[in-house]
Amino acid sequence: MGKEIAIATSNIHKIRELEQVLSKCSIRLRQVDIPKIEIQSEDLQLVAINAAIAVYNILREPVIVEDAGLFVEALSGFPGSYSSYVFKTIGINGILRLLEGVEDRRAYFESVIALAHNRGVLCVRGRVYGSIATEPRGSGGFGFDPIFVPEGSTKTFAEMSLEEKNKYSHRGRAARELCRVVERVEIY
Ligand code: IMP
Fold it and tell me: Who lines ligand 1 at CB under 6 A?
């Protein structure tokens, strides 16, 4: 049987990546077209929890919201929770320009998954450390994938298959944690 959980996002890449992991613990995702209400905060967890509760109040059934961001050490964590806006504005090339001549290219991705359900809200997170490449490589994935190289690999996320990206990624880690938690919690 498994559990069906709604997911509020228009990002098909996120859904595919989450599905690959969550299907292993019998969670089926159903995309819903409810615009995510995003509060402005540097804290991904606050953004995800608020958005999940807002969607739950409309749907009245278990729903997931995932919020993620890229945190660059040399830029004091920028773009962080503003990654979506920064990707749309200055994009990959803008980040590369900001890091021109910068030796310390360490960065991490973080993903927070908030699940608002019939008995409350739960939240899991996943983080992956790595570095920003000096030029974009690869054509897979989305967002900043072409410039992020996770620790333990020489490939960017955009050079990996979805399965390989999930082994390393913030989202893969958060999804595996969600599997562990959902097994122990009643959500209906
Ligand atoms: P949001 O979670 O939809 O607010 O997206 C945050 C932004 O961070 C996205 O628009 C992407 O630019 C970036 N981002 C989040 N996760 C990833 C990822 O797995 N790969 C590449 N970029 C990502």
Answer: 11, 67-70, 83-84, 87, 109, 141-145, 157, 169, 171
* Chain-centre distance for alpha carbon 53: 18
For tokens 């077209």, the residue is: 33
Instruction: Please determine, looking at this structure, whether the domain spanning 3-184 carries the CATH number 3.90.950.10.
Output: yes
Longest dimension (CA), the chain: 54
Which residue ranges make up each domain of the chain? 3-184
Let me know if 67 is a catalytic residue: yes
Ligand 1, atom 20, residue with closest C-alpha: 145
Residue nearest atom 17 of ligand 1, based on CA coordinates: 143
Atom of ligand 1 nearest to the CA of 170: 19
**Mean pLDDT score of the chain:** 95
DSSP 104-138: --EEEEEEEEEEEETTEEEEEEEEEEEEE-SS---
Q: What is the pLDDT of residues 28-81, one digit of tens each?
A: 999 998 877 788 888 999 999 999 999 999 999 999 999 999 999 999 999 999
